[in-house]
Design brief:
The complex is a heterotrimer of chains A (87), B (381) and C (199). By secondary structure, chain A is mainly α. Helices cover 52% and strands 0% of the residues of chain A. The termini of chain A are close together. Classes of the chains: A mainly alpha (87), B alpha/beta (381), C alpha+beta (199). Chains in contact: A-B, A-C, B-C.
Chain lengths: 87, 381, 199
């Protein structure tokens, strides 16, 4: 899958999984921080992203703490998924 | 406003089927948390407090047919039994039930019980009808403060003169529903929970039930415990994490102290919520410091029982009550090493001490917080 | 103490009533999801967190949006909420997920008092809360507990509510209780208001 397709797919999944109904795919920049000021996601969203990794890409994190480094931005997430996906 | 006395009580838990047995176990540092295999955990299992079904059935058979009542109902009915047996007439005695998930296990098992039993209002009817309570039962379902909030509701009804007496019964199960949920929140510790400890890594779950009679009349010629101040305050911060400034808990403590007409210096002992999650224990340390309570001997009872959810604040209040009566402080089981941002005076060994006032706190999902002040009254007052 | 039912809101059968006046109506065929979305837009709620909530919390938020509009709500306004089915509809969603991968965002809503938490967060209410589960709407209980809080605990105002979501059907009733207004806060008036439009 092309990297740009993965990023788009990821954005769609995140919007759906996290119920970000007022956002479109184009509203999320690839390098925008997902947490903090960016999309304003919170701790429950972080746990949902861990679920998303497993459900959609078959990646099970050993430690939930790893999430902090992976969920920095769409770019970082896509890189991690490309490297570790089993689906 | 009338004084509200805490009279007869019972605890049904892995540590015993009476308050006496439970206090004795706690005093002897016996924990109800045992390792149990469970595929949801990396290590293959977790530490949990489970009431053995066979033992429960055997005890329940003395008062009813175990096939006709769910596990939780048997626990609650057993808790009520010694209390109700001493009351000739249940007219005008409201029954207030506290639980978070009730018979939730019925939704998954192919069980002999109709699905309607899952409704908390149905559970309430079953419990109430068994003993013939005449008033409509009330269920308080308010996350982990439910057990104490039910006491607060009873206290408020009695103090206002609406009722002379009220009975509170609380209980919750360890169900797959709850295990799977807390696991998804990364909230369960693989080892037995370590409240207020440096290496604390989450809760241990436990099941239990308890019952308590509250009354406007004291017992004569003995020391009585009254519930002299209660308050709840929401954090208005996050539904699944406590306020970083302990706002709701701090305000609840201040209001409860105000209602009890005492100052923080008069508190001799704190029975904290102490679930052993990273966030809860830190929040409590902050709130207690804001209230000037950092020197007061403090424990969490959760090392003995785990977190019993809708029963926790009730079971722990009963332990607090007997702590006051016995002038005994019980150690915070599993406590090891302190690194919270604010200091607390953790009870690390059992101790005898003259106690008069205790503060019991609880917090829960939805940003709820509860503070209760207990007072040991002089003989006959 | 002279307590009044200052205002009330009903949400049922795809309609929203403010007092006795219908202020919004979706198509009769609208299911709860469509109804909630349309009402959210119509009321200009503008609160993205809304979309993460479960049905119960969404119903509670919409109800208080209407109840609180054009007035200042004291941050110590107590919330005395009730229903008969707790969070059962959301519980069922969690059980479904348990067969696959559990969603933490669903699990956190499997407690009825979360409605009260969400309302507190949105409106900055640091106040007394309680969630009662009763067989049916219990005006006496809501009345007694509200009176006790306002008389004995210095609570300035109360919202008492019935927020029910059962088998895809919803029945929502909220009242603002304070010292302002003309309608006396008593059992008869509370019941009459609740049953209005429930016929």
């Amino acid at each position: 899958m092309k990297m740009s397709d993965l990023r788009t797919e990821l954005k769609r999944s995140i919007i759906e999984q996290l119920n970000l109904e007022e956002l479109e795919v184009d509203d999320i920049a690839n390098d925008e921080p997902l947490f903090g000021d960016g999309l304003g996601l919170d701790s429950i969203d972080a746990l949902e992203l861990i679920v998303l990794l497993e459900k959609d890409y078959g990646i099970k994190l050993e430690e939930p703490e790893q999430g902090k480094k992976i969920f920095v931005s769409i770019d970082k997430m896509a890189e991690y998924i490309e490297a570790h996906r089993t689906k | 406003m009338k004084k509200v006395y805490l009279l007869d009580d019972t605890i049904i838990s892995p540590l015993g089927f009476s308050t006496l047995e439970n206090i004795s176990s706690v005093k002897n540092q016996i924990s109800g948390l045992k390792f149990q295999k469970n595929k949801r955990f990396k290590s293959g299992g977790f530490y949990v407090g489970i009431i053995e079904e066979e033992r429960l059935k055997e005890a329940f058979s003395e008062i009813g047919d175990p096939d006709k009542f769910t596990k939780l109902e048997q626990m609650m009915l057993l808790a009520l039994h010694p209390i109700v047996s001493n009351i000739p007439n249940l007219n005008n005695i409201p029954l207030i039930i506290s639980t978070t998930k009730g018979n939730i296990d019925l939704l998954q098992n192919n069980s002999a019980f109709p699905e309607s039993r899952v409704y908390l209002s149905e559970l309430a009817k079953v419990i109430s009808n068994f003993y013939g309570f005449k008033n409509e039962p009330i269920v308080v379902s308010n996350a982990c403060i439910s057990g104490g909030l039910a006491m607060a509701v009873a206290k408020r009804f009695i103090a206002s003169g609406k009722f002379e007496n009220a009975i509170v019964v609380g209980g919750d199960l360890v169900s797959d529903f709850v295990i799977s949920g807390f696991q998804s929140l990364q909230a369960i510790s693989e080892n037995a929970c370590k409240p207020f400890s440096k290496d604390r890594s989450g809760i241990s779950l436990g099941e239990g039930a308890a019952a308590l009679l509250l009354s406007s009349q004291p017992k004569w010629n003995v020391k009585n415990i009254t519930l002299t101040g209660v308050a709840t305050t929401n954090d208005a911060n996050h539904i699944a994490g406590p306020s970083r400034t302990g706002e709701g808990l701090y305000k609840s403590i201040q209001k409860a102290l105000g209602e009890a007409e005492i100052s923080a210096e008069m508190i001799d002992y704190i029975s904290a919520h102490g679930t052993a999650t990273r966030y809860n224990d830190e929040m409590e340390a902050i709130a207690f410091n804001r209230a000037g309570l950092q020197e007061v001997p403090l424990n969490s009872i959760k090392g003995y029982y785990g977190h019993t959810l809708g029963a926790s604040a009730l079971i722990e209040s009963i332990i607090t009550k007997h702590s006051l009566l016995n002038n005994e402080l019980y150690k915070t089981l599993n406590f090891e090493g302190y690194d919270l941002s604010k200091p607390l005076n953790i009870i690390e060994e059992n101790e005898e001490r003259n106690l008069k006032y205790a503060l019991k706190t609880a917090s829960g999902f939805g940003g709820c917080n509860l503070a209760m002040i207990f007072k040991k009254e002089e003989n006959g007052s | 103490m002279d307590l009044k039912i200052t205002d009330s809101v009903h949400i049922k059968n795809q309609k929203i009533f403010h007092g006795k006046e219908m202020i919004f109506s979706a198509k009769p065929s609208a299911d709860i999801i469509q109804f909630l979305k349309q009402a959210y837009k119509y009321l200009n709620v503008s609160y993205p967190k809304f979309h993460k909530m479960d049905g119960l919390s969404k119903l509670g938020i919409l109800g208080t949006e209407v109840l609180f509009q054009n007035r200042t709500i004291h941050p110590e306004t107590a919330l005395i909420f009730s229903n008969s089915s707790s969070s059962l509809e959301t519980d069922k969603l969690h059980i479904e997920a348990m067969g696959d991968i559990v969603s933490p965002a669903v699990f956190v809503y499997t407690l009825p008092n979360i409605i009260v938490g969400e309302i507190s967060i949105k409106n900055g209410l640091l106040s007394e809360n309680v969630f009662f589960v009763t067989d049916k709407f219990n005006a006496g209980l809501l009345l007694d507990y509200s009176e006790i809080l306002m008389e004995d605990s210095d609570v300035p105002a109360v919202v008492c509510a019935w927020i029910e979501w059962k088998n895809a059907d919803y029945d929502v009733f909220l009242c603002l209780i304070s010292r302002k207004g003309n309608l006396a806060f008593n059992k008869e008036n509370l019941e009459e208001l609740y049953h209005f439009e429930n016929e």
